[in-house]
Amino acid sequence: MDKKLLKAYIRTIVEEEVERILPKMIKEQIQSVAGAQVVSESATPTKKASVSKQDLASLLGITRDGDTLRATTAGVRQTHNLPSNVPDYIESAITRDYSALMKAMNKKN
């Protein structure tokens, strides 16, 4: 049998089956939706949680010193978050406290 002819037969058979089955399936779905009961109940609205800028800043460890923002890095990067194959010198560079260096840089400016 020719491949094109086989595809045409299959296409025709599928179209006939869809035309035969689809109206029945649609009718069943319409009946199930029509037979469903509408439930209307009011839900008590919940109060939207509000977070002020001050609350958010305190959670992140940010403080304001005049026009300067200061942030603590105490919980930002811990060694247990690092992959196991990171060399020690990179781990110490990532977890080092750079506050003294930053203060010295700020004094220079």
Verbal overview:
This protein has 109 residues and is mainly α. Among the domains are: 1-34; 69-108, no CATH class. The protein contains four helices and two strands. It has helices at 3-35, 53-60, 88-95, 99-108, and strands spanning 62-65, 68-71. Strand 1 (62-65) and strand 2 (68-71) form a beta hairpin. The chain is elongated. The protein starts with a helix and ends with a helix. The model has no long low-confidence stretch (mean pLDDT 77).
Summarize the structure.
The chain is mostly helical and 109 residues long. It has four helices and two strands; from the N terminus they run H-H-E-E-H-H.
Q: Fraction of residues in helices?
A: 40-55%
Shape: elongated
Number of discrete helical segments: 4
Largest sheet, in brief, is: 2 strands, antiparallel
SSE run:
HHEEHH
Instruction: State the end-to-end distance.
Output: 86 Å
The Cα radius of gyration reads 34 Å
Low-confidence segments, ≥5 residues, pLDDT <50?
none
Q: What is the spatial order of strands in the main beta sheet?
A: 1-2
